[in-house]
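Subject: Sanity check before I submit

Could someone independently write out the structure tokens for this chain? I want to compare against mine line by line before I put it in a report. The sequence has 221 residues.
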Amino acid sequence: MSTQRHATYRPIHKAMRHLMFSTSKTVGLADFNDHADVEEVLEAIDRMISLLHEHRENEDKYVHAPAEQRVPGITADFAEDHDLDIVLSDEVQGIARQILGATGDDRVALGIELHEKLNSYIGIYLGHLHREETVLQQTLWEHFTDEELAAMDMEIIADVPPPVMADFLKELCSSYTPAEILPILVSIKASAPAEFAQFALRTAEHNLPSRSWEKVKTSLA
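---
Independent answer below. Compare away.
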């Protein structure tokens, strides 16, 4: 049995996929003649794009910058992807803002346009994630040790503001297996302030599937 190398992208990308798919679902189910639904959609869009941008900036600073130093030019295509991400996410948010000022059939039409543009954006983004998980991950394995890759992850975690980390945690708990989320919760329980540790456990309980939560709760006891 081969030894598993440290996965830089796969864990966090699971959470990013859940974030995008759940946002698409929210937009797809919305009644754009219902003000409460519109508010929910706009909040979901803003949250998704904010977290995706945070993820992109962390990759640029803590993963792609050191990769570029060791293999010059390796991140050029991915930098172009990140630039395109900004353009496409701005287009999505632009349509979302138009919805606030629209009424009746115009608002419904914009809702359909938003759903289609969002899913086009997600489709392009998914291709980017796959290339990172394959092409770029292989390069990292060839030029960095697992200890160095793990250190990159720790730098990212240390730099994420607590409120943003709390938001990310909801996505992790919604998309990780018990074996994946358990070490994160163990670390938080052991080293984080008590208030945040309690928040993390509540987040896990509310977002993990019930059977997964039972397994995690038993292991944490």
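---
OP: Matches mine. For the report I'm noting this point. Residues 161-221 form one domain.
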